[in-house]
From TrEMBL:
Function statement: Component of the exocyst complex involved in the docking of exocytic vesicles with fusion sites on the plasma membrane.
The entry's keywords: Cell projection, Cytoplasm, Exocytosis, Protein transport, Transport
Gene3D superfamilies per UniProt: Exo84p, C-terminal helical domain, Exo84p, N-terminal helical domain, Pleckstrin-homology domain (PH domain)/Phosphotyrosine-binding domain (PTB)
GO MF term (any one): phosphatidylinositol binding
Keyword Ribonucleoprotein: no
Compartment(s): Cell projection, Growth cone; Cytoplasm, Perinuclear region
Family: Belongs to the EXO84 family.
Protein name: Exocyst complex component 8
Lineage of origin: Eukaryota, Metazoa, Chordata, Craniata, Vertebrata
SMART domains on file: PH
Alphabetical list of PANTHER family matching this protein: EXOCYST COMPLEX COMPONENT 8
Pfam families xref list: Exo84_C, PH_EXO84, VPS51_Exo84_N
SUPFAM superfamilies named in the record: Cullin repeat-like, PH domain-like
Species name: Chelonoidis abingdonii
Amino acid sequence: MALPLGEGVGGSRLRRQLESGGFAAAEYVKQLSQQSDGDRDLQEHRQRIQALSEETAQSLKRNVYQNYRQFIETAREISYLESEMYQLSHILTEQKGIMEAVTQALLLQADRDDPALGARRAAADPHSNPFLPLSAKEAAASEEGRQRTLTTLLEKVEGCRDLLPESPGKYLVYNGDLVEYDADHMAQIQRVHAFLMNDCLLVATWLPNRRGAYRYDALYPLEGLAVINVKDNPPMKDMFKLLMFPESRIFQAENAKIKKEWLEVLEETKRNRALSEKLRLEQEALPRAALPPPETTNPFDQEDEKEPPPEEETVDLSLEWIQELPEDLDVCIAQRDFEGAVDLLDKLNEYLGYKTLSQPVRELRAKVDERVRQLTDVLVFELSPDRSLRGGPRATRRAVSQLIRLGQSTKACELFLKNRAAAVHTAIRQLRIEGATLLYIHKLCHVFFTSLLETAREFETDFAGNSGCYSAFIVWARSAMRMFVDAFSKQVFDSKESLSTAAECVKVAKEHCKQLSEIGLDLTFIIHALLVKDIKGALQSYKDIIIEATKHRNSEEMWRRMNLMTPEALGKLREEMRSCGMSSFDQYTGDDCWVNLSYTVVAFTKQTMAFLEEALKLYFPELHMVLLESLVEIILVAVQHVDYSLRCEQDLEKKAFIRQNASFLYETVLPVVEKRFEEGVGKPAKQLQELRNASRLMRVNPESTTSVV
């Protein structure tokens, strides 16, 4: 059986040679070059080394893969062990505080029972008093030294003497150098020096030009301070967070030992502060409680006595899932398990309910609220337009639903609509502008109205229980429609397309807009309001073109009959006039290919009827007067020209021909225009009726010098 290139006797010898401790690559290559017979030997040796390299890489991959699960389990066990050790340390510290509190309470009880004994104990040396706890002995022994240290502190820190007045009970507990980091971007901000006193925490910044001197930065009372351990995430390690509503700050210690000391001493100092404050309040209330209530003989006083207030309901926070809740939330956020994070928050809220907020519950709430803020920031980033816009509106459902569960429906609605607006804008920009305007408008309408319909359906699904958000969607739809109309108008109206093309494009947009009625959304009035200005401009521009063309033809009018030369041309003209509604046009055609009308009148008729048909496709109520006034102006140009020619022409034959053209205009064209306008609009046009009546007066007295105005 053939051996692989990297195996066999030669492969084993080569492996041992390469693995030896004294292997020198240069000497090995030199010796190999001297011993080889030619290029072929070197190529074979190179293949053996390459095969050995690949075999070694595969072996390493297999080893890593086999141990990967063990690595993960070991890391998880280490994390659990660290959490349990921290929890054990926390419990021991609490037990120590409870024992000290019990000892002090026993001493106070003994003093109340035997005042003489209390006086002798107060006069005695505290170092020799065996009933004082160990921490009290140390405090009594070092009280004078702490006062001196506090005085030195006030001299080193600029600007804190007025904010931190000396008092007999204030002393320094712990201090040290820290590095502050930005809470959002984890960037280093500055070096600080923190001074922990028995009732507050002072943070001071370094003065660069004065060694050992500091400048006051902030002072935080211990009552409103929460301390959170930040898990190590290299290179960010040895950090802890301080929460002071409404802000938070992150500090990094020099090493893990100093970080642990800071965490322990902060917790212990806070606990001692709370205990001393509780004892002080008890001592203040003691004289009033010692006085017996005066006896009364009024039998009604007993009925008016109120029951004592119920005791605060205690909340058990020692459950394992509550202890691990902050860390579990961090893991869920890091792994993008948003549903799991919100489920944990719902579970906590259900467990706590409306119970009285004790100090431990407040501390837990502070830790959880910080995680809620981080989770909200991540969800907001998921919905930001900077993220990928692919996947349609359904891609945002996950983040939106979790924000709604967190009670932030308004923010979820705002971010969802911003995301969809960016998606629609991007889709419109990516459309390729084709040479044919109508083809581009078809694509534009399909992309925009499909996106709008999908967004509306997804919005209805996500915010079904939040009816207050629907007004925001209507506002968004109006702004999106404005974006669509801008692209539409730029392509249709700004490029000076013909009125027929503009009418077809507007018709396509209206038909697509009607698709929204499937979900009960009608935005037709919005598209009318946004297009009315451009359509008015198009109608007036095309009206001016017709008027100029009519005037130009009038200036060259010879009042001669039309000769179409061929029967085919005559048949085509008849078909065109019949499509315009001129059913009586045949009576104006003569023998062969002659038409008993002027070329100017026929051209005016076709152009006017084409303008009316295209304008009716664009019609909506806001355009009524614009369309009517444009029609009246166009008709007046032809009527006035016929009136003027009839009064000025001296040739009787031509005068009879002009009357025949006038009869065609007044008795055929104007009634058809009036009828077609009424059919398209739905109501008669008073101005057109008045124009026809004025023309009738002119025909009664054709020799008059007046003209229609």
